[in-house]
Amino acid sequence: MSAPLFDWSLIDWADIGTATLDTLTMLGASLTFTVLLGLPLGVLLYLLGPRRLLANQPAYATLSFVINALRSMPFVILLIVLIPVTVKLVGTSIGVAGAIPPLVVGAAPFFARLVESALREVDLGIVEATQAMGATTWQIVSRALLPEALPGLLAATTVTAVTLVSYTAMSGVIGGGGLGDLAIRYGYQRFQTEVMVITVLALLAVVQILQMAGDWLVRRATRK
Amino acid sequence: MIELHHLNKTYQVDGRQVTALQDIQLQIPAGQIFGIIGRSGAGKSTLLRTLNLLERPDQGRVLIDGIDATALDQAGLRTLRQQIGMVFQHFNLLAHRTVAANIRFALELAGELDASAMAARVAELLALVGLTEQAQQYPAQLSGGQKQRVGIARALANQPKLLLCDEATSALDPQTTQAILQLLLDINERLGLTIVLITHEMAVVRAICDRVAVIDGGSIVEQGTVVDVFLHPQHAASRNMVAEDGHAAVLDLAGKLHSVAGKLLRLTFVDAATYEPVIAEVGQQLASPINILQGSVGRIKDRPYGQLIVGLQGDVSAAQAAFASRGVRCEALAA
C-alpha cells in the first residue's frame, strides 16, 4: 500500500483557528475603515466630476490622480512604504494591527472609484427632481443619491471585501498573520502541503460566504 | 404672476458658443395654464428650468410674484423651489421608495410637518391623483400613467402656487396622455395654481392651455391665446407646428386646388358662431353655392371652434361682409 497523499495528522488545528480569526479580524477592521474613508472620498469624486453638483475640473483631476497613484502602487510595496505611518497610527508595524493601515490605504482608493461609478448609475433626473424640491446638496447626497445607489454600493463593498481577503494574504510579509501567511510559511516554505490545502479551502470559504452574503444584500436592496 | 425680462443664456459646447435663450420676454398670468411649444433643441427645456433656477440665465430677471429669483441666496432659492412643483417627462421617482414615501419625500425635504401631518397630507394627495390603492407599491410596479400621477402628487405636496411640467405626457400613450392632461386641468381649476408646461405637441396645448408661446431657436417668436395662435399662426415656426398637428385648416392643398373654380376663403368660427348654420345662410344670401374644401371642427380647451377653407364663386367682399356680420372671421386666400 502506498502512503496516503495527505497526512492530515500533521496539521495543527489551533494554528488554523488562530489564522482564520486573524484573517477575519484584519478583514473586519480594514473593511470598516475602508468604507468610512472610501465612501466620502467616492462621493466627493462624484460631486466634483464633470456636470455634477460641485463640478470642479482642477479639484477632480487632482483627486483622481491621487487615487490612481495609490491604486497603481503594488500592495506589497505599499505595505513597506507605509511602515512609518503605520507605527504612528497603531504603535507597531507588525502583526494584525500593523497590517490594518496599509490594507485600508490600499483598498480605500479602489472602493472610492467603485462608489463613484455606483453613484453615476443613478439617473441624473433624480438629482434634478430632488434639487427642484428645494433640497440642499447634503440632502441630495444623503436622501437621494446614496439610498438610490444602495444596491451598487453593497456590490462595491462585497468586491472590496474579497479584494481585502487576498491583500491580507500578503500581510505575511510584515508578520501580519492570517490564513495567507500560514499557507506561505507552512505550505510553501516547509512543504506541508496539507496546511496549504486547508488554508486555501478556508480562504475559499471566507470569499464564498462574503460573496453570497453580498449578493443577498444587493438583492434585498434592489427595487428595480 | 411670472415675468421674465430679457433672459439670455448661452452654452459652451465643444468650444463653440450655443445660444439657448435669446432675449426672452414673457408674462405668465396667475391661475392660467401656459404652454411653451417648440421643437426639440428650441430651448423650451432651458426656458422652463430658468423659472426655478435649475438653469441660471446669463442675463435677465425672473420675477415670481414680484420676487427676483435670480437675486436670491441659496436658502432663499430653496424656499422658492419648495413653492414650485415640477413634473418630469421620465417621472424621476426614487426607485427605493414606495409611492407614499415618494410623495412624502417632498414633505421631508421641506421639513415643516411632523410625521402624522405628513401621513395625512400624503393620504390626501394619493386620493387626489387616484392612487390610494397603490400607496405601498414601488415605482417599478406601476404603469407609466401611474408613475406620472405619483410625480404630480409629489409636485403638489408642498402646496405650490406654480407647477412646472416638463413634457409631462411625452412618454405616455395617447389614452394615458388624455387622463393626465385631464388631471392637470382639474388641478388647475380646483387648486387655482398656475401651470407652465413645455411640449412639442400642439395637441397638448389645444387640450388644456389658455395661452401659448412658441419658441424657436431660443427666441419667443409668437405668443397669445391658444385660440389666436392655433387658428391664426403668424410665424413660420408656429404655422408648421399647427400644420403638423393636422387639426386646423391650414392651406396644405397648394397646387391641388387650381382646378377649383372661384376664390378661396378661410372661415374661422369660435364659440357661439359654431352653433349657427352660417354657411347655409350666407350661401342663400349671396345666391351662390359655397364649396367646402377642407376643414376641421373641434374644441380648444373648452371653446368650440371651426375652421374651413371654402371655394366661392361670386363677390368676395360681399361674402366677407356677410360672414363678418355673423361673427365669422373670413380671410381671402391667395390660391
Short structural summary:
Chain A: It is found in: Cell membrane. Chain A is mainly α.
Structure description:
The complex is a heterodimer of chains A (224) and B (335). Chain A has helices at residues 13-48, 57-72, 75-81, 83-90, 95-120, 124-132, 137-148, 150-170, 179-188, 193-221. Chain A is mainly α and 224 residues long. Chain A has one domain: MetI-like fold, CATH 1.10.3720.10. In chain A, helix 1 (13-48) crosses helix 9, helix 6 runs antiparallel to helix 7 and helix 8 (150-170) packs parallel to helix 9. The longest helix of chain A has 36 residues, at 13-48. The model of chain A has no long low-confidence stretch (mean pLDDT 90). In chain B, helix 3 packs parallel to helix 5. The two termini of chain B are 44 Å apart. Chain B has two domains: 2-245, P-loop containing nucleotide triphosphate hydrolases (Rossmann fold, 3-Layer(aba) Sandwich); 263-333, ACT domain (Alpha-Beta Plaits), CATH 3.30.70. Chain B is elongated and about 75 Å long. Chain B has helices spanning 44-50, 74-82, 99-110, 115-129, 144-156, 174-191, 202-208, 226-231, 236-245, 278-286, 316-325, and strands at residues 2-13, 16-28, 33-37, 59-64, 67-68, 84-88, 162-166, 194-199, 211-216, 219-225, 263-270, 290-300, 303-312, 329-333. The chains are: A mainly alpha (224), B alpha/beta (335). The interface between A and B is medium-sized, with 21 and 31 residues.
